[in-house]
Amino acid sequence: METKQSKIELLIEEIQDYIDSCKYKALSNNIILVNKDEMDSYLMELKKNTPEEIKHYQKIIANRNAIMAEADKARNDAKLEAQEIVNKAISQTNELISEHEIMQRAYDQANEIINLAAAQAQEIVDAAVIEANGLKESATQYTDGLLAHVEEVASHYINQSGNEFNNLINSLNECVETVRANRNELYPQTVADAGATTDFIPVQNTASLKTDTISDLDLI
């Protein structure tokens, strides 16, 4: 079944285009520089927009419940019809029994009518139950199939987005490590050993970047 491209697919394409348009870090052919505000904006859009199939979930459940209600109504109507047949048979029996001269004949005929009515009523109830169970089974299979498709699509988008963002985080962390190494090279240890007066400014550990980045990803 051919489906339209969802909003989340369009957003993923926009993110890919944005990443492709970013400039490479100086002296590097695989590390890029990204704008944090723009990336946060893309992440918020991904969080707000979900595949259209998920939005149909409540409608699918509502349709299934309507089928269930219709099946239950058919079964109840069958029971009422069966009870009316039995009541009519009993009424006919009473009328026949009221005639003394044909009492025995009326009694036999009444029992036959009651048995026939009970058999017909049971057939109606059994047919209604079979039909209702068939409707319920069809509705359940249809709903499960659609939800399985939704689960497959959602899992695919989550895995695809997670891999792309993990690659972005790794690139940013490599950039941080390169910057830290370059800063440390500005104050070599030999200057301190020679008694130079230049104050050495140690580079603080910027490992918090990884933690902050992971916190941002929790928004997805």
Task: Write up what this structure looks like.
The chain has 220 residues and is mostly helical. It has a domain at 54-180. Helix content is 78%, strand content 0%. The protein is built from seven helices and no strands. It has helices at 7-21, 36-48, 52-55, 57-97, 103-185, 189-193, 208-217. Helix 1 packs antiparallel against helix 2 (36-48) and helix 5 (103-185) runs antiparallel to helix 7. The longest helix is centred in the middle third of the chain and has 83 residues, at 103-185. It is rod-shaped. The protein starts with 6 loop residues before the first helix and ends with a helix. Mean pLDDT is 76; it is low at 194-201 and 203-220.
Helix fraction by DSSP (H/I, runs of at least 4):
over 70%
Shape: rod-shaped
**Secondary-structure class:** mainly alpha
The largest sheet is: none
Number of helices: 7
Radius of gyration: 38 Å
User: How many angstroms does the end-to-end distance come to?
Assistant: 28 Å
Strand content: under 5%
- Note poorly predicted spans: 194-201, 203-220
Mean pLDDT: 76
Strand segment tally:
0
